Amino acid sequence: MITESLKVFVTVIEQNSFSRAAEELFLSQPSVSLHIRNLENEFGAKLLHRSSRRLSLTPAGEALFRHAREILSHYDQAKSEINDLRHVVTGALKIGASFTIGEYVLPRFLAEVSENYPNVEVSVTIANTEEIAQLLHQNQLDIGIVEGQVSLPGIEEEPFMHDDMLLIVPNGHPLSKLSKVTPEDLQDQVWILRESGSGTRSFSDDLLKSLGVKINRSFVFSSNEGVKEAVINGLGITIVSRLVVHKEIAAKVIKTVPIKTKEKLQFSRKLSILHSQEPASSKAVGEFLEKLRLFEL
Asked: 116: pLDDT confidence band, cut at 50, 70 and 90?
């Protein structure tokens, strides 16, 4: 179909490269070139100027590119509406998740529900909470699942589940010998932290501030695996989700120690589903939102 060639043409322009377009579309480079030649034959005009360094559009190419994206958008809408009439859920779904959820919750959710939607193409973006919220706000994602709270115009936030947060320490660390630790015990420790913008970092900062704990030295990692390995190897202590370390605790390669406080503090956090306040943009988005609302670990 000509829509396939139009999609190849648009991707070549957006990527400014035949080879990158081929990678993006899982095609060979000769196949990409054939699609462009077919379009040029169809319209009887040269569409692209190629040089060793860059691509540029001819006037005919500029006209086609301007209309091609609109044609493809209308085609996808028509296909979606027809599939809705046939009660078939199809299309592309872009889900974003913060690191803890993306690494330890979302794979299990997708494994449970994806068999029921074989015609839905799912792509997953894993980043910190702040980045996922911004991508959703920019319409680059359909659904976000994050830690902590998000407040952005046009974005709906729904409760997803609760996540227990734990203090973990290396085996052999002085704190590992205690049945409970006090805020005083946590002073002057080396802390392993996530990067700013992550839900885990936000929770840790708020908790340590509430406890009056001052951090004199810390190491910052941009992934849960980095944090976990740092603790296992004796670099320091941290506060992290139970989801991240439950296997390591069971294997006794690290230890969790309860924190004793005078005031009642929350040692769990809320996980949230984020989506547009507008009606679901496709049946796939609506179906996966409903499944997320019912999902339990």
From this structure: confident
